[in-house]
């Protein structure tokens, strides 16, 4: 596994393919999940050489972090890149807070659940309405100086909030909603991030499974809340073009889409979620997909309507 990314101004490096873990212990978000499946898929990811594990307090209100914390005890911690997020205050109905003292407590609580003494990346999961963003980041910078976290991230911040958070050039990484069918971060946001040496990680890279190619035009009703019928048909047509490229490489649509993100210089690492170890094993093969410049452009153009 060779594709490696350096995270912002920190000294964290990671495989460009990670694992998203909202389906590891995230019972509050996905009813019916079994803990054992969560254990199995985190193990599968680490056994396959994935380094970046992306979790959050909100995934199971700590359960995802606890499961990951149990699993990593059997692995070399120095080879794992643990990213977690906090902002929801469990003592106040999980209301969003960026209060500096609260964030310090959130990091301490995550460290306990993950059973480790440092986090590679800590993201402020959501912005609150009141805390000056540079003050929130300054609290995290104290923890960075103390060795409790190695890189500082923000998530779901507007570009203005990112700029405020980065007033003192202390933000290393941004995690935001982005995929080939949700391309709002391209343009101004990516330009600012590049100019300020801030890494970008997209969430929902597979549009919650839609971009794996496993759905057909007949499945429109499953996605009717998010897309108009004509948008859905556009996505199906774009995926047919991806499929033709995938067939040339003898790989799947999902692997080709993930390969496109890995090849994208504005994306540091991609963290597809998974429901089972088989999906993890399939997704890891995206690291072997090498798209030609022309194939990369064809995929870019196929989804141009979503820019
Ligand atoms: N910062 C934030 O606010 C935020 C918000 C959301 C998510 N995230 C992070 O981003 C990660 C990724 O987002 P996500 O997991 O919600 O969405 P995603 O990566 O777009 O989609 C993942 C889903 O696609 C399906 N899938 C994955 N690989 C597949 C394969 N090889 N073949 C067939 N189906 C496959 C699985 O669902 P099915 O089997 O059910 O189809 C899987 O759960 C999360 O896990 C989380 O860590 C962060």
Spell out the key features of this protein.
single chain, alpha/beta, TIM Barrel, seven-stranded parallel beta sheet, two-stranded antiparallel ribbon, 11 strands, 38% helix, binds NADP nicotinamide-adenine-dinucleotide phosphate
Notes on the structure:
With 307 residues, the protein is an alpha/beta fold. The protein has one domain: TIM Barrel. Helix content is 38%, strand content 13%. The protein has helices at 35-47, 63-72, 100-114, 133-145, 159-165, 188-195, 229-249, 253-263, 277-284, 293-302, and strands at 4-6, 13-15, 18-20, 52-54, 81-86, 88-89, 95-96, 121-124, 152-155, 173-177, 199-203. It has a seven-stranded parallel β-sheet with strand order 3-4-5-8-9-10-11. It has a two-stranded antiparallel sheet with strand order 1-2. Strand 1 (4-6) and strand 2 (13-15) form a beta hairpin. The longest helix has 21 residues, at 229-249. The protein is globular, with a radius of gyration of 19 Å. The site of NADP nicotinamide-adenine-dinucleotide phosphate has 27 residues, from helix 9.
Secondary structure layout plus pairing:
Blueprint: E1 4-6, E2 13-15, E3 18-20, H1 35-47, E4 52-54, H2 63-72, E5 81-86, E6 88-89, E7 95-96, H3 100-114, E8 121-124, H4 133-145, E9 152-155, H5 159-165, E10 173-177, H6 188-195, E11 199-203, H7 229-249, H8 253-263, H9 277-284, H10 293-302
Parallel strand pairs: 3-4, 4-5, 5-8, 8-9, 9-10, 10-11
Antiparallel strand pairs: 1-2, 6-7
Bound molecules: NADP nicotinamide-adenine-dinucleotide phosphate (NAP).
């Amino acid at each position: 596994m060779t594709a490696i990314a350096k995270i912002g101004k920190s000294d964290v490096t990671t495989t460009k393919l990670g694992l998203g873990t909202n389906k590891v212990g995230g019972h509050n978000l996905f009813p019916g999940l079994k803990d054992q499946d969560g254990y199995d898929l985190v193990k599968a990811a680490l056994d396959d050489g994935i380094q970046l594990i992306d979790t959050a307090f909100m995934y199971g209100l700590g359960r995802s972090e606890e499961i990951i914390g149990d699993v990593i005890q059997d692995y070399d911690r120095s080879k794992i890149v643990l990213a977690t997020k906090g902002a929801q205050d469990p003592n106040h109905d999980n209301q969003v807070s960026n209060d500096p003292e609260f964030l310090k407590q959130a990091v301490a609580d995550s460290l306990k659940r993950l059973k480790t003494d440092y986090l590679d990346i800590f993201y402020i999961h959501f912005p609150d309405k009141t805390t000056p963003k540079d003050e929130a980041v300054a609290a995290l910078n104290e923890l960075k100086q103390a060795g409790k976290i190695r890189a500082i991230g923000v998530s779901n911040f507007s570009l203005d909030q990112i700029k405020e958070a980065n007033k003192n050039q202390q933000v290393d990484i941004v995690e935001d909603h982005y995929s080939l069918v949700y391309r709002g971060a391209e343009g101004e946001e990516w330009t600012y991030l590049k100019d300020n040496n801030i890494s970008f990680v997209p969430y929902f890279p597979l549009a919650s499974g839609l971009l794996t190619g496993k759905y057909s035009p007949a499945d429109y009703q499953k996605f009717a809340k998010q897309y108009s019928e004509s948008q859905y048909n556009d996505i199906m047509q774009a995926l047919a073009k991806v499929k033709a490229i995938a067939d040339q490489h003898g790989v799947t649509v999902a692997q080709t889409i993930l390969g496109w993100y890995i090849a994208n210089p504005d994306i540091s690492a991609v963290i597809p979620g998974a429901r089972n170890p088989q999906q993890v094993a399939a997704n890891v093969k995206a690291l072997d997909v090498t798209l030609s410049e022309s194939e990369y452009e064809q995929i870019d153009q196929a989804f141009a309507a979503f820019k």
